Protein: TonB dependent receptor
Organism: Microbulbifer aggregans
Amino acid sequence: MLAKQLPFAPAILATSVAAYGLLGAQFAFAQEGAGQIEEVVVQGIRMSQETAVNIKRNATSIVDSIVAEDIGKLPDVTISDSLQRITGVQVRRSAGEGGAINVRGMPQVLTTLNGESYLGAGSVTTVQPNFNDIPAPLFAGADVHKSPTASKLSGGITGMVNLRTHRPMDFDSGVTTSFAAEGQTGRDSGETDSAVSGLFAWNNDKVGVLLSASLANVNLANYYNGMAGGGSDAGWSGMPPEAGTDADNWNYQGNDMNGDGDLDDRYIAYQGHTAYNQFAERERLGLNGSFQADLGNGFDLTADFFLTDMDEKDRRAGIAISDKWQQWGWAAPLVSSEGADGIQTVQVYQADGRRLKSYSEVKGTVSESSNINVELNYDNGGAFTGAARLVHGRAEQNNLNSYMDLDMADGSQWGVQFPVYPGGAMASNPDGYSDPFQSIVVDYRGDAPRWSGVPDLVRNLDGYAVGALSSENNYDREGEMTVARFDGSFDFADGGLVQSVDGGLRYSDRDAKNEQFHLLAPIGDNNCLVRWKATDVVLGGSTCSYGDGSGTFYTAGNPIALSSFGSDVQWVTDFGGATGIPGVYALNPEAMDNVLAFHNSLYPNNQRGIIPGQSYAVNLQETSAYLQANFATEMGVPVSGNFGVRVVQTDLEVGQRVVGASRDYGAPEVDAGEFVSSRSYTDVLPSLNLAFDLRDDLKLRAAYAKTMSPLNLEQWGGGLSPTYAINSSTGVFEVISANSNGNPELDPWRADNFDLSLEYYIGSGVVSAGLFLVDIESFIERGSVAMDLPDQDGVVRRTTDVQTNVQGDGGQLSGLELSAKQAFDFLPGIWSNFGVDVNYTYSPSDSGNVDIEGNDLPFADNSEKLANFVGWYEAGRLQARLAYNYRSERVVAFNQVWGTEGLTLMQAPTTYVDASVSYDVNDDFTVYLNGSNLTGETEEYYLQWKDQKAWQSAYEPRYTLGVRAKF
């Protein structure tokens, strides 16, 4: 019961703190009026909170900020971890670290670096910011602008995130240095990881230079339990009905599975059930450099560079039970319940599968970005000020994977016990089990899956052999961006209604290229290109074959015993929360880190096979101009604000690869060339921001703006990409699902934004409440359509569920934001050392979709409720902080499981608790201890109904001990 009430506690607490703060502040101010008050020196957490409050108070629009307490002292790993403390910012975690973010429930968020566009390696082809590769210690702070102004860049629907780095003139003249070193460990990873960061700055009030760096190498636990093929959608799921015939492997063949006397029921089924051990190793480097010079006569020059480099290896090893794509009704529902529309949810599966296997996988990702900025500013104390700025960014992300199936079966279960090779027939796994099926029960009730019936044969190393080896869905992404802009402002000295006018011109040119590919091994005299080097892939296809010339065709995958890998074999017993699995033997995934070399050692001369449906190039050019009037007047109370318009001309060129004929053995379709299309569109984006100073400590803000955001580039450039699996009984590679991603004619996101907020400033704190409405004119959503697609032999056998992009219109997002930043310095004694930073966001939305029970669905990835509570303590040399973050359920994907209209994949609510404590040994030396995810939160995913669990991702608590020095 407590767990259900807990998510709402921060909202109540925020309101209570706000009310208590108002009363307390009135008491404090009364005391100040009555007598002399001792001066309090503000520093540390107090200083960072006070600075964030001042940024909000002095902003010309609705802004929330975070500020580092000291150099390199944002108490988080990535900048996303820090941003989640801001009202309305939702974060998705990757291996427990902050990654992609939303603002007010939407991912269409513009990212800038020191006020101009930033090209990050995590968002080469996307709009949604992903700061997983960007270390927090490099930043002085970040601002989230929620109501646009004409002078700010366009490109976000619900907000803009501006990351602020250090510059040399931010510091006192002379030399400033800082250094930090820390050790990290996790509850499950058990390794001691290291991180160091440092900064050097010098200036003489005329010229300054700065260099800061951050380097970390961490190992993060990231377990997965549940359906095979999950992680982003429920593509490897089906819904077999009870009714059917023995010849139809897509149903339960006329069996009354729940004993209710009819054959009208359907059951959600998975292709397989799996549990795996996964650890992410991340080596993260960040560099920030800056040069500033006063050139005289009102001119000053600033030049910056910002570099990031992250090398990530996701290594996993696990167990899976399946029927090897033979039938959807292979796992009987032992415990089920009524969902809706004749659909039965299943809580316990009797998995009688032909294939019990272990597997190993490594996903290597290298992310690099560099952003350079040169700006010349003019301010000679006169009415006119101006700036010219040139920005250039490059980013790339390269991903290469390797996957190995390790069969415990001897192959007789799907007809490959003795595959044929040029030297004759050979046993694929001579010591594997010969039983037709393995019977395992997977129980999804409770906090984690419980397996039972796992046979003792898993302990027999000699019974494991390589069933398949592949490297698929790899990609190379690269982007380049150039921006030139000129801005000017003229102040009017007469003090009339219009105080100043701002104007500017801007041109940006952004290129992005995505190349998706499989590694293909040439096998046989005809060099047949094979994606799946597997013991059940027979080289008898129509486009290329390899055999004895007499109708007998050879097998692609060689029989390889797992034991032949020697010391690279490991016994895996740690599957996160999943229980009942004694362990499995698997190849240490680290042995495949050099993917190409590993594959070439077993199947020489692998080459890239470009996937045309997922490869594209996009050029996006924007030319914009803006004019903005800044005004101030009296209307009973002082009123200030700005009104302006930005006009954006967009020229879009999309190069899509043409999907040609199918090829055998899992190779991608023929790349039949490039189709280039062009289009242009113009957006006129007015904006108005008003601020009413009702009292010195009470400010009312109102804002309106039209907004526009480009699409993720794949939504313009991607094509049709089928997914195939072999049917061992026929030898045909059958299409099981498909993605259709690109359409150059799709419109960008467009919306009208309305904001109203009230801000009450209490000493150095603030309590605020805001209302917002985002009326979305056009948007893109992920949906599913049924299409008749051929298998790889060209024959259409069934209707296939195709995930695709759909142009939506008429959506709406509205909500309420409450926040309070307050130091309790008005309280007596020890209580004066405490303070809070609390916020709550309520953002219901309507995507226009309904679920299978007729309920309205929000936009994908939007959580209706978001709450943060940060309580802190600061006294003398001691500082401590406890942070609580709650995010309610969210839609992951619409129309799942064979494209069933309204059947929705959901993520359950999440709660994360972090803490930090530090002690200043002296003015220059600090020792600190941080803990993240202290409660060991598990992220749960389910299909429509909470008792139809799809999968869970489990992250570990992590602890950091470090020292920080400054000189």
The first helix runs from residue 2 to 5. The radius of gyration is 30 Å.
